[in-house]
Amino acid sequence: MIYITRRERFSAAHRMYREEWTDEKNLKVFGKCSNPNWHGHNYVLYVTVKGEPAENLGFFININTLKRIIKDKVIDKIDHRNLNLEVSFMQGKIATTENLAIAIWDELKPAVEKEGAILHCIKISETENNSIEYYGKEY
Amino acid sequence: MIYITRRERFSAAHRMYREEWTDEKNLKVFGKCSNPNWHGHNYVLYVTVKGEPAENLGFFININTLKRIIKDKVIDKIDHRNLNLEVSFMQGKIATTENLAIAIWDELKPAVEKEGAILHCIKISETENNSIEYYGKEY
Amino acid sequence: MIYITRRERFSAAHRMYREEWTDEKNLKVFGKCSNPNWHGHNYVLYVTVKGEPAENLGFFININTLKRIIKDKVIDKIDHRNLNLEVSFMQGKIATTENLAIAIWDELKPAVEKEGAILHCIKISETENNSIEYYGKEY
Amino acid sequence: MIYITRRERFSAAHRMYREEWTDEKNLKVFGKCSNPNWHGHNYVLYVTVKGEPAENLGFFININTLKRIIKDKVIDKIDHRNLNLEVSFMQGKIATTENLAIAIWDELKPAVEKEGAILHCIKISETENNSIEYYGKEY
Amino acid sequence: MIYITRRERFSAAHRMYREEWTDEKNLKVFGKCSNPNWHGHNYVLYVTVKGEPAENLGFFININTLKRIIKDKVIDKIDHRNLNLEVSFMQGKIATTENLAIAIWDELKPAVEKEGAILHCIKISETENNSIEYYGKEY
Amino acid sequence: MIYITRRERFSAAHRMYREEWTDEKNLKVFGKCSNPNWHGHNYVLYVTVKGEPAENLGFFININTLKRIIKDKVIDKIDHRNLNLEVSFMQGKIATTENLAIAIWDELKPAVEKEGAILHCIKISETENNSIEYYGKEY
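^ Those are the sequences you sent over. The predicted structure of the assembly is below.
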């Protein structure tokens, strides 16, 4: 089994909050990340898929196929957007990086599997100091 | 003359646009950076000051003094904020990184000079691929 | 299960040696890392914890809580210190990065568990080329 | 069990293609990576080995031993070379990073085991955006 | 005056040598960089241009214009190519990074000036340890 | 004129203090960097030299020559050492990065000039956030 990781980047605005809470309660729970006027990040996304390389090709998925899937399913929908207001797969969810990783996993899984590969890990770095990994429901 | 550079980071939301233009015109001129729902970045700020080290100290400005000035004058006002709506020194300006570098220069210059140092350069990286430098009006 | 990683940094002096050996023997076994006059590093520490995000929060541990635990239990005791002479949790141990990773694991585990999270991995980079990972006794 | 990772770098030329295919077919399958006049990369290699630290040493393998093994078995044979024409352990294989990772695994495994350590992972970054991991046949 | 820097990357094969010299002489002068079977790099290119921001725009050149110029004039001609055999602006020149920086300067200068900007610096990193800067003939 | 920069690294212990001051006064002036038990860093050194490339070579100094000079004059004397106790060119000086940059300039200048090149800049990063540049007495 070989693991291949593609790194992509997107810039987005977001705010961590629950609509049913007051701004005060949100600020108490989520801190400065709950600023009602938004803030934003350069998110770095690492998508890892695994598979058995075909002997006549030396790979199991063309990196350009993987790149195109990530662009179609994630980057085009999220880059230079507002996570809370504009990103379809984040609707109704608190805009934490944790929830974002799970949503991107769900977004990518069917497309990756259609190519005969297995989705292994979604890693997102929100800043150079904070990052999240998700390996699917079983782990 | 010795040059010392302090690197700091801040995360902010912004939008490039002119109020008197329609969203269409703004999008045409500024592209996706003009998204009305905002987007954001992890900005990296490099502040370079210069001076002659005092012989009995081996430096001309304590790095902690420089750090505190940048925190007080810039980071505390801009981190996890909206550049357009909330940052005092960006009011009435288009929120480009170019204007941000000039505004931060103006914000820091008096405080740096009060410490006997000379402000040399403000560098801001908006993404890993795009960065701006400003050396003051004379350069 | 979600994995969250916090990156922190500390600068410290150290020396790899066994007290009961001569300097010659220490230098033969540990090389230049055994210099009796010490040397030092900018260590980079990555602490990974895991858990199930609470639905009403979107996370299982507040990153600021994790940051505070690492600061209290590790950084405040080790930054700008001598690993061999001053760091309580390294007393009586050879100051290798391997032993440091295990000691930091033991230091952090109870505090992380008190927050309802599971400590998953301690990774320490001693230089850009050398790093250590520890996943607890079972792995 | 402790995991130690050594990072090394090498620069090499390569081309992805099958000899029995025409240039046209190769370009269709492998894209610009199949350029008949070659192209090249700064590859970054991460070798992870694991073991139980000896109590009287604080490590299970001297990092310099690991460094020497990687230099002898890999770097000296591959750095500033052509992967397709000159690298013994890539003969008869398509010069993908996937195949390279497997070949380097096979090259390093006996030498690492002779030192009493277990080879855990070969990771190769071909560019800052694309990387491959291999954990042996069982994973 | 504001300085804006765009970072781009390209992967290429090359060889340092003089045709009129024997392989032996070339290897003696240029070392392993003269390997007749080629080697290659992930080059990182930094293009810095300067100008006075227009007050109604907040910039003097749209970063996307700069990006397009670099793509058209440099990246499309050099990425995944052989510097010696295939790159028009390197014909008849020894394929050092020094000569590459000068050639890219000459390639970009007219196009940058047509946009009303001034080309300030071409920086190329060949590896993480070696880089070249060129500021034009006058410096 | 072409500028070439070589990056090297060294790990060292140090302490900022004046012998004639008490530990208390030293701690007040230099902060935690004055810890009497030492601390240390992974210093990153960037040496920039300039010159006119010879037409028949495509460079003005062989990067390996520059590398060897830096190794002989700096790295071999400073790596895995104590800046205050063991490094000849730091004797009698306060071990700040500012003084270190000036001392390394003085150490390298004659050797660089003997090769027909001009020393342009010594840059040292003490941590990822703090760095120093020195361009000689005239700047």
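The domain at 2-134 of chain F is CATH 3.30.479.10 (Tetrahydropterin Synthase; Chain A). The interface with chain B takes residues 16, 18, 29, 31, 93-96, 98-99, 101-102, 128-135, 139 of chain F (CB under 8 Å).

Shout if you want it in another format.
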